[in-house]
Each structure stands twice: as C-alpha cells, then as structure tokens.
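Morning F.,

Quick status update on the modeling queue. The single chain you submitted on Monday has been processed. Sequence for confirmation:
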Amino acid sequence: MRFCSRCSFELMDGDLFCQKCGKPVKNDALSSPATRPASNHVNIDSLDIPEMTLEESIILCEKAQREFNSLEKKNREVSEITRKLDNGLQYSNAQYSTFHFFWPTLIFAFISIYVGVIFMVLIGRLYLTNSVYYFSYTLPFLFPIAVLIIGWILAARKRDRENAWLADINREKGDQRKKLREDKESLLHEISILKAKLNHDYQWIPEKFRKSSSIRTMIRHLKSGQAQDIKSALKMLR
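Structure tokens below.
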C-alpha cells in the first residue's frame, strides 16, 4: 500500500498523480503507513465516534461549526487587540518648546530692524529735523524688542496649550490601553473555557480537524451524500 508524500492520501497502483492534492507520484516520495509522519495520519476507525443518522450528523456538525467559529472569532479579536496595543496606541513623549512657536516672531523682528534702518537712512534725513532724526534711529530697535517680548509671551501660552493637548491624548490612550488589556484578559479567559469545552464535547474529532473550515467541509460531504455519517465524513478529510 502506497501513500502520497504530501497529504498521505492512499494511492492506487498505477496512479501518476495524487487524487486528492494532485502531486505527481514519484517512487522515492512514496511511503508506507509505517514511514509516514505520524502528524499526517489519523486512524479514524480507532476514534470513539458517536453513531448517528445522516440528519443527526449534519445537526451535530453544524453545532460544532458554530462553536468553533465562535472560538476562531475570539482568537481574531485577541489578535486585533494585540495589534492595537503594539502599534496603534503608543504613548508620545513629545513636548513642544517655546521656540517651536517663537521662531516666526524672531524672523519678523530681524526683518523689522533691517527695514527700519533702511527707511531711516534713505528717507528719514529728508523729512525729519536733526533731533527727531537721531531719536528716530532708536525706533527700528525698540519696535522689534517689543515684538519679541510679546511674541515670546504668546508662544509660551501656545506651548502650554499644545502640551496640555498632548497630555490629554496620552491620558486618553492610557485609558484605551487599560480597557483593551482588560478586554484581552477577558477574551483569553473565555477562550480557555471554550477550548476546554470543545475538547471535551468533540474529543472524537482529531485535533488537526478541530476548526470551522474542516467541519464545514464535513457538512458539505454529508449534505451532498458523499458521506453517510460523521466517520465517513472524517475519512474524506484525510
């Protein structure tokens, strides 16, 4: 007796391809049950499978599919929560400095000095008396100083507002992370209980077939008439 080296499906003499997975048959890739990996072979006949009619088999498999779907859904929720905790809700330690908001004022002050000096040199002497002219030379410097003082005060206020906003965001993220961790712990507890229940209720299902996709395939075989009971449906999964 020969078996496919990929899926362990039983091969007939003369087969050139596996009838289940389509892998070409090679003599060096074939093996007997004694040499096949144990993880790929399940002795269905040795399992304590409940005997029931076709309709009862379909009802039981549909119930099992719903319960395994619920387990897989909870596992996906845990994965999504873990992803959010790892990537989407990281704390930010950034803090704005006063200079971050002050530098435009600084540039404006330097431009004011430059423009004021040019104005006084080119135009002031033509229209101003000497005393007023020399006094007006201080204006290009007094005005920027006032601008710098006011600009620094405004920049400091904006810095405080922005940093307070960042702190609020971090607090909100902290609350969300706390809730997500609580939800994750609750889900893990529910998953642990559900797994124990499923392992007890469906111990006749081989472990590698304890998933909704495999049970859905069993239901399809049962409803199509290819399988008459659970045992024959399980054998078709091999």
